[in-house]
């Protein structure tokens, strides 16, 4: 690299010297003529412009610090299938902002089994690289096919039906033994969204009563950050189709949703909802939507919810938590920008250690989109 750069600079110096001599010779031949300067020949202007452009290009290639071998290799050697894919389909700009991860993801053997790199895909998606580029390899599946899959969405999740090698827990029963809020214990999940324990709860039966009294219907719904899909499972028993967006953050949430006979969407919160405008009757936001999301991002999310909701549809913020002062000064005005009708608005203290320490509260709000604005 150093020898090549030195040779390029030597050639440039020779070109510069040659052209300076030519200019000197030209000026010496016209000194006896009137003061009006003769125009510089076009070929000299072209050569000088070429020299300037070449120097600028070489300067831009000169690194400020010696790159590591790994970085240099990733930046200069793109996987062949990545190069092919860029010619047939656009790639999200954030993918290009993470070239090393993108190259690792696309560095595979075409027409063979895909590498076992689910965490890498998750990492790229969370960095905004979504949708991921398509790949020409065969997805990995469990070695043994399941003899049967449950039709009851609250049956225990069948073992050996998902690849769990990259998790600490290697079985669904292990995940079910973790904290109840993870959503893998079907005995716990079976009673969720059905009972009224505090003003923060909105049982599904009450939700349908509200819709019926408003002469509205709930047939299609979207559950944002729906975990293992329990809300969708309960609504399925009421003949309502619910699509659940979820990420595999530390647990196989997408696999759990699918094994329950439901539809998971592997989509991050910052991604535009992959649903057409004005076609959904209900959008629910669960625990994944909370005060940790930047306010501007949340504002875009809420207005994307408005985009997919039909007129008269419902927006359910279920146990949204934030600091009490932020709810009053930030989030309530933000929600108010939608100009939805408040059907339910319940606030209560968050009583766990984090809630007490940070002065946090829960909000459950059911809002109805107006028919016209």
From TrEMBL:
Residues 1-22 form the signal peptide. It comes from the Eukaryota. GO terms for biological process: methylation. It is found in: Endomembrane system; Membrane. It is a single-pass membrane protein; Single-pass type II membrane protein. Keywords: Glycoprotein, Methyltransferase, Signal, Signal-anchor, Transferase, Transmembrane. The keyword Transferase applies. It holds the Pfam family Methyltransf_29. SUPFAM superfamilies: S-adenosyl-L-methionine-dependent methyltransferases. One of its GO terms (cellular component) is endomembrane system. One of its GO terms (molecular function) is methyltransferase activity. PANTHER family: EXPRESSED PROTEIN, S-ADENOSYL-L-METHIONINE-DEPENDENT METHYLTRANSFERASE SUPERFAMILY PROTEIN-RELATED. Belongs to the methyltransferase superfamily. This is Methyltransferase type 11 domain-containing protein.
């Amino acid at each position: 690299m150093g020898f090549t750069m030195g040779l390029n600079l030597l050639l440039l110096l020779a070109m510069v010297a040659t052209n300076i001599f030519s200019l000197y010779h030209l000026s010496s031949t016209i000194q006896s003529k009137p003061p009006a300067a003769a125009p510089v020949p076009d070929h000299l202007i072209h050569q000088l412009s070429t020299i300037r452009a070449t120097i600028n290009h070489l300067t831009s290639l000169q690194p400020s610090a010696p790159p590591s071998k790994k970085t240099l290799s990733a930046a200069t050697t793109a996987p062949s299938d990545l190069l092919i894919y860029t010619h047939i389909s656009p790639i999200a700009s954030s993918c290009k902002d993470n070239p090393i991860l993108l190259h690792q993801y696309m560095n595979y053997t075409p027409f063979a089994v895909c590498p076992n790199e689910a965490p890498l895909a998750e990492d790229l998606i969370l960095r905004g690289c979504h949708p991921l580029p398509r790949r020409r390899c065969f997805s990995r599946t469990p070695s043994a096919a399941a003899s049967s899959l449950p039709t009851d969405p609250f049956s225990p999740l069948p073992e050996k039906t998902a690849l769990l090698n990259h998790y600490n827990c290697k079985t669904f029963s292990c995940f079910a033994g973790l904290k109840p809020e993870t959503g893998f214990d079907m005995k716990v999940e079976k009673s969720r969204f059905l009972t009224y324990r505090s003003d923060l709860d909105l049982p599904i039966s009450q939700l349908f009563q509200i819709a019926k009294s408003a002469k509205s219907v709930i047939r299609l719904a979207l559950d944002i950050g729906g975990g293992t899909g329990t809300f969708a499972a309960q609504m399925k028993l009421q003949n309502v189709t619910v699509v659940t967006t979820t990420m595999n953050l530390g647990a196989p949430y997408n696999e759990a949703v699918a094994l329950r006979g439901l539809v998971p969407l592997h989509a991050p919160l910052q991604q535009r909802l992959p649903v057409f405008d004005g076609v959904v009757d209900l959008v629910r936001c669960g625990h994944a939507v909370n005060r940790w999301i930047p306010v501007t991002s949340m504002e875009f999310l809420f207005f994307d919810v408005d985009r997919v909701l039909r007129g008269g549809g419902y927006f359910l913020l279920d146990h949204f938590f934030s600091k009490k002062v932020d709810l009053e000064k930030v989030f309530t005005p933000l929600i108010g920008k939608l100009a939805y009708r408040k059907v339910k608005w319940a606030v209560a203290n968050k009583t766990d250690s984090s809630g007490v320490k940070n002065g946090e509260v829960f909000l459950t709000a059911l809002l109805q989109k107006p028919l016209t604005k």
